[in-house]
C-alpha cells in the first residue's frame, strides 16, 4: 500500500460517495462540535468495527454518547474523511502509520488523548510450510506495501533470522535496506487487504492482524511467526483532526474503549488474535 499513502482523486471520490459529503456533529458557525450530536467514527471492519459496535450496543447509551460507525476496507479513506470533516474520528491505525501519513499528505491528524486501545500482532502465514525454517532458497514472501507496515514486516522477518536490515533502518525500511538475505527471498509488495488472498500465489505472506481475521486466519493459531506484544509501538489508537482532541464525545469514547468491559470483550472474542494495549 505504498501508493495508497498518496491521496488520489479516485480515492477521495469514493470516500465522498460513501460518506455522503456531510460533516459529522460539527457546528459550522462556531467550529465546535455539538456535544449532543452523534460521534461518527470511521473504522476497518475487523476488529475495530466490531469493538466499536460492542461499545455502541453495550456501553455508549449509559455514558451519554451517541455513536455511529462507518466501515472502510482501506487505510487511506478513513484519514482523508477525518481531515475533511466527513467523520469525527477514526480507529484503524497505529502511531507510526499516522505519522507517516501526515508527513506525506500534509494532514494534521492526531491521536486522541488517553492511550492505545489494542494490538493486532503482525504474523507470517503460509500454505506451503509449517515453520519459517522450512522456507526454501528463492522463496517468495508477500509484505504490505504501505511504508510503516512494510518496515514492520521486514523487522519481523529479521527478528526471526531470515534477513538482516542495515543499521538504523527504521519505520520506513524497504527491501532495499536488506543487507543479508541468505535464502535469496524475493519480496512481493501488495496492498495490505490483498495479502490474505495472496497466500495461494506465494510461499509466505506477512499479514496485518485485521486483514488476517477478515481472511479467516487466526493470528494466535495460524501464524508461523508473530510479533511480540511487549513494548510494541504498533498498538491501534483513536485519531481525530488537530483541535478536536478535547471534544467531550471523543473523551467519552476513549474512556469506553479503554474500559474493563472492552478489555474483557477483546480477550474473550479474539482469543489472543487481538490483545488489549491498556
TrEMBL record:
It is a lipid-anchor. Its main location: membrane. The lineage of its organism: Bacteria, Bacillati, Actinomycetota, Actinomycetes, Kitasatosporales. This is Lipoprotein. Residues 1-23 form the signal peptide. The keyword Membrane applies. Belongs to the nlpA lipoprotein family. The keyword Manganese does not apply. Pfam families: Lipoprotein_9. Coiled coil: none annotated. Keywords: Lipoprotein, Membrane, Palmitate, Signal. PANTHER family: D-METHIONINE-BINDING LIPOPROTEIN METQ, METHIONINE-BINDING LIPOPROTEIN METQ. It is found in: Membrane. CDD domains: PBP2_lipoprotein_Tp32.
